[in-house]
Design a protein that fits this description.
This protein has 147 residues and is an alpha+beta fold. The chain has one domain. It is built from seven helices and five strands; from the N terminus they run βααααβαβαββα.
Length: 147
Amino acid sequence: MNPTDTFFVIGLTSEDVLTDVDFGILKLSDYSLKNSMELNQRFGPLRPAIRKGLLVEEEGEVFFLFDATDFEGAQIYKQQFGDKYFEIKFLNDVAFRLCHDYGIKLPPVLKIITRAELPEPQYLGVSMRFRYCRIGAAATGGTGTLG
């Protein structure tokens, strides 16, 4: 885990929660599993395909800020973004990209930060961590597309 990894900060209002935005984000792990099964059918076992460069493995991460009022980490974010958010989430670049790829509509990005700028671990909950494979350069002959 690199301290310069990118995270997108989004705020979920109570309306966002009612429209299942949070559930859509959680479905990323389902999409990852389905994608892995499809790639397994095309390329065989994933680990050897990754070693050959046919596939590239990435890690998706989604964190949330504990909504407690008595610690400084929450207060800093509430001062920056206001009190209207029911929950503040931090999606790494993989999770953020996959939300777009799978049509998961997210609220506007409040801020883009690095891993080093995340709140301290005691203030963060882990919504999910998942592995995602995509087709690598060796499978595309360096063109980025199959066929």
